[in-house]
Each structure stands twice: as C-alpha cells, then as structure tokens.
Amino acid sequence: MGFLKGIFSKSESEKLIKAASGKYAEGDYKAAVELYSKIIEAEENNIQALYGRGLSYLFLENFKDAAADFDGVIAIDPNYSVKAFYNRGMAKSGMGDNAGALKDFDKFISINSKSALAFFKRAEIREASDDLRGAGDDFLAAANLHADNPEIFCAMGRVKYKLRDYKKALIDLNKAIEINPSHVNSYFLRGRVALEMENFPSAIEDFQKTVSLKPHSPEAQYFIALIKNKQEDFEGMLSALDVLFKMDPKYSKGYELRASVKLLQRDFEGAEADFTQMIESSSQDYTAYMRRGDVRRILFDYEGAREDYMKALSLNSSSYEIFYNLGLLETNFKSYETAVGHFLKAIELCPESSDAFNARGIAKHRLKDFNGAVKDFTKALELNPENSEYYLNRGNSKAALQDNHGAIADYTKALMNPGYSEAYMARGRMKYTLSDYYGAILDFTKAINLEPNDPAKYFIRANANKNLENYNEAMDDLNKVISLSPKYAKAYFLRGLIFYNMRSYRNAVSDWEATIKLDGSFSTQLSKLIAEAKGRL
Fold it and tell me: 318-385 adopts what CATH topology?
C-alpha cells in the first residue's frame, strides 16, 4: 500500500477518517484499525488517524502498537490532545511498563488536575507497583473530585487493608456500601477486613451478603468455610464446602481446607483423597503433591510419598520443605546417606532451619558419624536453644562417643521440659551405665510417673533395684511388667534370677521355664541354671 502515499485528497482523507471513526464508535476496532492504517500509509503524519488507531489498538489490547501510535501523536504535536498522554499511560500500563505509565499520568494530571479518572488510574498503577501510600493519596484525590463513586472508596479501603490499617479500611468500605448498598466487592473486602480483625460473625455476614449479591462467588464461600473451621464448627465448615464445590468443583483450596480437618481427625485416607482432588483441580500446584506425600508417609506408603515429593520437586526445585520432607522419607527408608544429601540441600535453601540441622544430625548418628551429628545438633541448638528434643539427640550422640558426663549435661538441659519422660529415661540409663543406680532409679521413677503404662520403664528400674539388691522393689517392678505385658520374656528371666538369689528355687524354675516357652533363645543359657535350681529343691 506504500504507493498510495500522499495521493489522498483532503476530502478523501476526511471521508476515510469519518468511516474509521464510525467503525470505532460501533466497537468494530479491527475495521477501524484497517481504515486508519490506509490513511496513515498515505499520510504518515495524519495526527487524527494516528490518534484514532492508537485508541482502537488500546481497545484491542494491542498495547505495544497503541503506545507507538500515541508516541507519534505526541512527537508531531504534544498539544494535540492532552489525552494522548493519558492513553499512552494506559498502553504502557498494559505492557507492564508501570514506570513509563506513571510518567504519562503525571504529565496528564499536571495539565488536567480535575480528572478523577486519571488519579484513579494512577493510583491503580501505584498500587500494582507496591507504592501503597502513593496509591492511597491518589485514590483520596479521586474521591475528593468524585465523592459519590463507590469504586473509589472500595479501592481506598483495599489499599488500607493491604497496609493493615483495618479500622480506616472499614470507614472507606462502609462509605462505598452507603453509596451503593449492592456493591459486592465492598462487602467481600469488608469481610476480609473483619476476618483479619477476628470479628468472625461480621466476616461471615459480609461473605454471605457477597454470595447473595453474586451467587457464583467461590472465594467468598471458601472464606465462610475457613471461618467455620477457625470456630471449630467442623460440620458447618463441611456444609459450606459442599456449597463451594457446587459453585466450583475444582476450587483446590477448598479440598486443602477439608484435608487439613481430616488430618486433625486422623482420617488420613480421607485427607489423601482430598489432596488427590486438589491435584486434579490444580495439577501444577506443587504443594498439593507435597501434602499428599506427607499423608502417604504417615500411612507408610513410602513409595507413593517419594513419587509425590519428586513430582513436587519437578514443579518447584527451590522449595526447602520438599527437600526436608524427602530427607525424612529417606530416613524412613533407612537410606541415611541419601537423607543427608536432601537435608544438605534443605539447609542451603533455608540456613536458619533448626529442624533441618536436627534431622541431618539424626541421619548422621544412624550412620555412626557421631561427631558430625553432635555438630549438627549444636547448630540446631544455636538456632533454637529452647528445644528439648535437640538436647536429647545431642546427648545420645555424646553417649555414643562415650562422653558420658556431656551426655548427662544435655539430658539435664532437655528436662527444661519437665514432662519429657524420654529425657528422664536417657539420663537414667546413662547413670545406670556409670553404676549410679540410686540416681538412675530416681530418673526412671519420674519417667514412670509420666508414663505409668510402659513395661520397659519398670523393667529397667527393676534391673537397677536388683543391682542394689533391693529385691522386693525389683520384684514389684517385674510383677508390674508382667501385668502390663504377660509375654515379656526378659521379665520372667530377671524375676527368676531374683527368686534364685532369694533362694526361692521353685519360683525361679517356674519363671525360667516360662521364659523359654516365650523365647526359645534363652534355652541354652537357662538349662544349666534350671538344673541347679531343681537340685536345690
């Protein structure tokens, strides 16, 4: 079409402009672009055609070409239409060039400071650029120019919500609703504000109003379910989710919420099914695979868990949590070297994770790298010095290194949690190893008081009492072991030894024969003792 350049008469040009403008007015923007382009090929500086084509491109969301046309208009005559700056700003905003858009809106507003729409649009760009204070100022300027527009007050409330200025956000949202009692976005946002303020009844009321005004409002319905969950109204939550899934069967966050409740209720199969639904609804959401992997690990489906974690990793290779969970999984598999590698990656991604250092320490301990384990537990304690479990674990590694007094010191620190029976048992065992049977018995007794139905605790205390020749106390402990666990072979064996030492040979023989019946591996060891006891009858 280049050969047409400069051959249109003024009347022909005006005729084409009129035709193009007509197509634009009809909303046929593609046809308008074609007509304006014919004029521009003939008259490249036809400012009216450039401006009209720029507007048409803008409506077609062809922001790049729109911006180029407005560039042309401004280059030819900056004073042709101040709206060229406004429209170029809109085009640049559409292209993601917020900095360029702001410059154009600044220019437009410097010329026309009475345009509420310009302030509103500039505010939206500032909000998108995280300049919330600047956005708030512009929305306020728009409100001062157009005080009866609910959209402006809703936007002001939204910015204050983002700034966590909830009380002032409510003032703006209430104003928007006062202007338009059916302004659905304001009800929804006011519900969000009430939720943050933990005013759950008001939040539910606003979300329900949102749904009544706009029946297909899955996000509002989701928040109703979320609040019911926070109120521990699980039946209400499930009912709200049923409504949500009718609105949108693929609303993945709803399945995640329901799964979280099923986990609390220890319905692990139900939680797994919901995470599967979440995956079907949002197949690229790595968290869905990760959460299902967590549940499968609980269900001892380690292969399924590994498959899910690896899928999650393929979707997000920079997630600390995935590598951490993979490390835990490989620990379950007893693949400790692989676990150490995963924990290393988790630590690289999140160097402040005390749990990752602790978990790697456990894996190293099981690889008998006790020095490496102590270093990891020490780092975990530097990050979180109030964690009793970390002290217990470091104590165990020190015990393996025969640093017995260091182990006792760590077990004692673990008892910053006075209800930690495992720490009492660990310290008691170490005292037992050091032949401090009195101290061991004190610790075993505290552990038993915390967990009175564990036969193993009574058994080890019985051993300590036996070593002190406290036979009556030892016998009481062994009787308790047998009452709790009638097939505890070692208890019969030890009670038989005590009967033998107390010269109650018939009872000794009876207990040792019961021992062999429960565990044949004792036969060789006990046959001679049984014969000796029978010989003393």
Answer: 1.25.40
